[in-house]
Amino acid sequence: MRSIKIGIFLILTCLVPSLLRAQSYPQPKPGFDFSGFQEMAILENGRRKPMDTFARETVRSITGKERFAGFNPNELLLSWLTQTKEWEGLPIIDASYVPLQKQIHLTVEEGRVSPLKLKENQEFALLLQTVTAKQQESEKLSELEQHAGKLMARLNAFYGIASGSTLTLVPQASGPWQSLGQLAER
Fold first, then answer.
1. Mind listing the pLDDT tens digit for each residue in 167-180?
2. Of the segments 2-11, 21-30, 105-114, 176-185, which one has the largest average pLDDT value?
3. In the predicted model, is pLDDT for residue 15 greater than 50?
4. What does the alpha-carbon distance between residue 146 and residue 131 come to, in Å, rounded to a whole number?
């Protein structure tokens, strides 16, 4: 009887952590035609760019992959925009630089961290203060600090998509292009 209990305990010890780690990503909605969306122009850094190109570059920058969790880049951008709360708690941001993980005690899953965990990590916030101070003084950043800056850029890129502020795709008749976030404020 005791050996059965020990066997069950060992099985649960092996299975439960993997079940707890298994994240349930939202799934793409089949049947949506992205052809019009992909061809839309977006204004990025003063230049027009096809949405498809912007989506591929952005998704690759944030996740480290061009396709992620079964989504193509265009689907993923729209999902981040419309299902932010679900994505915010999932490990999507590429945080694969191990020395940085150790320095800020970052728990990653398959080299990624959730935006929420990263945003709440106080050690990361302190490191970013150092990075910002050095940048303002034009000091050279260490490799760790450079990676911290890149990680922050990925986090900002996700929240820029989620808020619509980086999706500058609506030209105004009498002024500059405006982001979805700016239009939502009207």
1. 887 666 667 777 76
2. 105-114
3. no
4. 8
State CA 131 to chain mean position distance.
20
Query: What is the rounded distance in angstroms from the CA atom of residue 116 to the CA atom of residue 93?
Result: 10
Query: Domain limits of the chain?
Result: 41-185
> Residue 28: which residues within 8 A CB-CB, separation 6 or more?
70, 71, 72, 75, 79
Look up residue 88 and give its two tokens: 């915010």
- From the CB of residue 145, how many other CB atoms can be counted at a distance below 10 Å? 20
Q: Residue 176: which of 65, 78, 46 has the closest Cα?
A: 46
DSSP notation for 90-148: S--EE---HHHHHHTT---BTTEE-HHHHHH-HHHHHHHHHHHHHHHTTPPPPHHHHHH
**Average pLDDT score, the chain:** 83
In this prediction the pTM is 0.80
Hey, what amino acid is at 24?
A: S
Taking the C-alpha atoms of residue 146 and residue 1, their distance in angstroms, rounded to an integer, is: 56
